[in-house]
Amino acid sequence: MRDYLIDTQTIRYWYDRGCQQHDIVVANIESLRKQVESSENKPRLIVSVITLGEIEFGHRVNPSADPNVQADYLKFVGEQLPVRLEVTEDVTAFFGEIRKRLFDTYAPGDKRKPKMRPEQLVDPITSRELGIQENDLWLCAQAIGHGMVLVTNDGMRRIREISQNMQPALLIQNWTIPNTARIE
């Protein structure tokens, strides 16, 4: 049974009762918990230190937000996701492989440079930016490297495309869609 690596948006939807995705995310979490009630080996819901950094960044760029709400949010994260996943050396090879595949597939040949960031990648056909964030690459690498399911609402279409035949596979679930939480 695999563990679940929960991304920033999914945590926000889980916490924020005011957003339209809240009820669906909570229902998926409850469904997953019911699926494993009788199981001896229960999957864990895990948060990456990368996600924690994104949360901290969000709090710092919105200093006008109520500090009590921010503290409550951090308390929620700590209680619901007590297991923290560090970026360890064993995931670096997966990060490198994902990033290489993206560059091989989407970086224009004449502009391909080792120092380019994923955010600078452009579709060679449409010339549109791909909208890939480096933190997403790290989360995908962590999920692959630790055999976890990444839970995200992000499309990650390009990352999904280039990782299709990677071994081990990148597994993604989107819990903002009803009835999608399942045991992998």
Show unreliable segments: none
Instruction: Output the CATH homologous superfamily.
Output: 5'-nuclease
Biggest sheet details: 5 strands, parallel
* N→C terminal distance: 6 Å
Order of helices and strands: EHHEHHEHHEHE
Model description:
This protein is of the alpha/beta class. It has one domain (4-173): 5'-nuclease (Rossmann fold, 3-Layer(aba) Sandwich). Helices cover 45% and strands 9% of the residues. Strands 3-2-1-4-5 form a 5-stranded parallel beta sheet, with helices on both faces. Helix 7 (157-162) links the parallel strand 4 and strand 5 (171-173). Helix 5 (92-106) packs across helix 6. The protein is globular and about 50 Å long.
Show the helix and strand layout.
Blueprint: E1 4-6, H1 8-15, H2 22-35, E2 45-48, H3 49-61, H4 67-80, E3 83-85, H5 92-106, H6 134-145, E4 149-151, H7 157-162, E5 171-173
Parallel strand pairs: 1-2, 1-4, 2-3, 4-5
Helix pairs in contact: 1-2, 5-6
Structural key phrases:
5-stranded parallel β-sheet, 184 residues, 7 helices
Please give a quick description of this structure.
With 184 residues, the chain is of the alpha/beta class. It has helices at 8-15, 22-35, 49-61, 67-80, 92-106, 134-145, 157-162; strands spanning 4-6, 45-48, 83-85, 149-151, 171-173.
